[in-house]
Amino acid sequence: MRVVLSTYGSRGDVEPMAALALRLKELGAEVRVCAPPDDESSARLAEAGVDLLAVGQSVRSLVSGPPPAPSDLPKRAARLVEQFHAAVLAAAEPGGAVVATGLFPAVAGAQAAAEQLGARFACVALQPTMLPSPHHRPFEYRMRPYPPEVTDHRELWELNIGTMNALFGEAVNTHRAAVGLPQVDNVRDHVLTGRPWLATDPLLDPWPGSEGDGGIWPEVVQTGAWILPDERPLPADLSAFLAAGDAPVYVGFGSMPLRDPADAARAAVEAVRAQGRRVLLGRGWARLAEVDGAEDCFVVGEVNQQALFPKVAAVVHHGGAGTTTTAARAGTPQALVPQMVDQPYWAARVAELGIGVAHDGPTPTTESLTAALRHALTPATRERAAALAADVRTDGATVAAKLLLG
After folding, report:
1. What's residue 210's pLDDT?
2. Bigger pLDDT: 227 vs 256
3. Do domains 2-193 and 236-389 have the same CATH topology?
4. Contacting residues for 307 by C-beta, under 8 A, at least 6 apart
5. What CATH class does 2-193 carry?
6. Measured between alpha carbons, how far is 403 from 200 in angstroms, rounded to an integer?
7. How does DSSP assign 182-237, residue by residue?
8. Cβ–Cβ < 8 Å for 125, 115
9. What pLDDT, on the 0 to 100 scale, is given for residue 292?
């Protein structure tokens, strides 16, 4: 059976697909992956033994460049629908399966290809806020905010249908008509389907369900997080730094291009030093760099976080689903500085679970990070993080692969 996995996003979107690809291959499936042409994506897929079918513009070049004008959104959405429809249509087969996540127009293109071929289709959420539920509000696009007086979750999700139609309806339906598919009145629910998957850990992200609501909400299938095992050794110079003193605090913001990375790095170094700790800066897409060249600070690029996080005193990060899950599995306290989309949700969950702290706002200062780290480094937080680690599941990709092939 041929399975096509499709995503458009950063490493946090691609790595889970690599994990699923690995498990599908172990079960005998033929797997192809459509994803953006970023080096990080290609490398992680190569570790799973899967070639990258590059689609669209590099995400790193996109987020690192000037922000696109809101007026460009319709053209960009239409281009993604067309590109992913063409790529998935060429890679998939009738009777096979297509699994898609990432930006909505890319998922819509993959869904249309599966529909056209007669292949099974699964829409996957790597975080819960994209899925309709009476228990949380929908993600809000800056160009189409919801009325401030509307606070009921059910009403907001109804408004969200109009938002998604306004932002993406023309791009989706114009393309569907061009390839001979019928138009849809509700693009959100058509693309998500009535049974989307949620690839998150049920302890970190318990899906509450929506029983008793008359079937107006989708039937969400939570598989557990899709984790790609990482066997890479840590670089020798990093291992030497770790062995040269007490456990440092890791600070990294993944694929987030911070507004002022120099100030963020300076604030982080000063805040960590205020706790009597050494500093390990993850360069990331923000390009964090050394502040003063002191021996208590080390800068690392792409690294095996699964091997690294158990060796640090705390992890300061942006709150991506993958980094949050990796730190939780390591039993290491976290301080989350959320920037966008689902990151405030993960920050709140970490604080609720008692395994870390949520920073107030996206812009860290020395004072605010010092306060966050003071809490994260308490014995109580470390004990809670260590106790919870053993209960974080690692079989999500296997569950999903068997569900797909069963």
Report:
1. 65
2. 227
3. yes
4. 230, 232, 233, 234
5. alpha beta
6. 15
7. PP-S-HHHHHH-SS-EE-S-TTTS-----TTSTT-S---EE---------PPPPHH
8. no
9. 85
Nearest to 33 by CA among 19, 44, 24, 45: 45
Q: What is the mean pLDDT of residues 112-124?
A: 98
Residues paired with residue 53 on neighbouring β-strands, in sequence order: 34
Q: Has domain 236-389 been given CATH number 3.40.50.2000? A: yes
CA 299 to CA 284: how far, in whole Å? Answer: 10
- Both tokens of 337, joined, read 């500085």
Contacts for 83 with CB less than 8 Å, ≥ 6 apart: 55, 56, 106, 109
d(Cα 291, Cα 164) in Å, to the nearest integer? 43
Place of tokens 């990375």: 261
**What are the b/e assignments for 87-108, b being 16+ CB within 10 Å?**
bbbebbbeebbbbbbbbbbbbb
Tell me what pLDDT residue 47 has: 82
Q: In whole angstroms, what is the distance from residue 288 CA to residue 277 CA?
A: 18
Cβ contacts of residue 101 below 8 Å, gap of 6+?
6, 7, 9, 13, 16, 17, 107, 123, 124, 125, 126, 199
Q: How far apart are CA 301 and CA 24, in angstroms?
A: 30
- Give the pair of three-digit tokens for residue 311: 């060796």
pLDDT digits (tens, 9 = 90+) for 192-203: 999 999 999 999
34-38 average pLDDT score: 94
Which tokens is 330 given? 């390591």
**What secondary structure letter does DSSP report for 4?**
E
Locate the domains of the chain by residue range.
Answer: 2-193, 236-389
Q: What pLDDT digit, counting tens, does each position of 102-114 carry?
A: 999 999 999 999 9
Q: Sign (positive/negative) of CA torsion 366, 370, 372, 377?
A: positive
3-state secondary structure of 30: strand
Compute the average pLDDT of residues 176-196: 97
pTM of the predicted model, to two decimals?
0.93
Please give the C-alpha separations between residue 174 and each of 105, 218, 290, in angstroms, as whole numbers. 12, 26, 49
